[in-house]
Specification:
With 169 residues, the protein is an alpha+beta fold. Helix content is 27%, strand content 25%. The chain has helices at residues 25-40, 126-139, 150-165; strands spanning 45-47, 57-60, 72-83, 86-90, 100-104, 107-113, 119-125. The longest helix is centred in the N-terminal third of the chain and has 16 residues, at 25-40. The two termini are 23 Å apart. The protein binds zinc ion (ZN). Residues 92-94, 134, 138 line the site of zinc ion.
Length: 169
């Protein structure tokens, strides 16, 4: 099932998501739906609050279907290591049509559970490192625009408000 993507302005995007405690068939179904919804929206990462579900679950595939082995499920993820620095353009499915330069760590290690509840650690570089940070931010109610200057952030918010008024958001 493809869920619509929740956009900026919905409070679910700005509150911390709940820890997942039951690793059942409903969770597996939700994760499958999240991949489907992410691909349909042409994204490389999706956090559950972005489909209106305030749970600590994210899916990532920075290869966008090219490498089935690159599909990652992060349940209750925690960032446990960060190294180096990268600057690059970043966007978000919940803030469509905007992109900004965001400085992030270059190498990031995440500790998470898989859909069966098994703990694992995964280290990613470059785009994958960026995805780990971006998605785990989502689960803490934080959006990438919190990492840009207040000036740029206010400009984006003003444009979004205009679009909301015009019924274009
Ligand atoms: Zn996002």
């Amino acid at each position: 099932m493809i869920y619509p993507i929740v956009k900026f302005g919905d409070p679910v995007l700005e509150k911390p998501a709940a820890t997942v405690t039951s690793f059942d068939d409903d969770l597996k179904k939700l994760i499958a739906d999240m991949f489907e919804s992410m691909y349909a929206a042409r994204g490389v990462g999706l956090a559950a609050p972005q489909i209106g579900i305030s749970k600590r679950i994210a899916v990532v595939d920075v290869t966008f279907k090219e490498d089935p082995g690159a599909k990652l499920v992060l349940v209750n993820p925690e960032i446990v290591g960060k190294e180096g620095r990268q600057r690059g353009s970043e966007g978000c499915l919940s803030i469509p049509e905007f992109r900004e330069e965001v400085s992030r760590a270059k190498v990031v290690t995440v500790r998470a559970q898989d859909e069966a509840g098994n703990f694992f650690e995964h280290t990613g570089e470059d785009l994958l490192a960026r995805a780990f940070l971006h998605e785990s931010d989502h689960l803490n109610g934080k959006l990438y625009i919190s990492h840009i200057s207040a000036l740029k952030r206010d400009l984006i918010k003003r444009k979004i408000k205009k679009m909301m008024k015009a019924g274009e958001w």
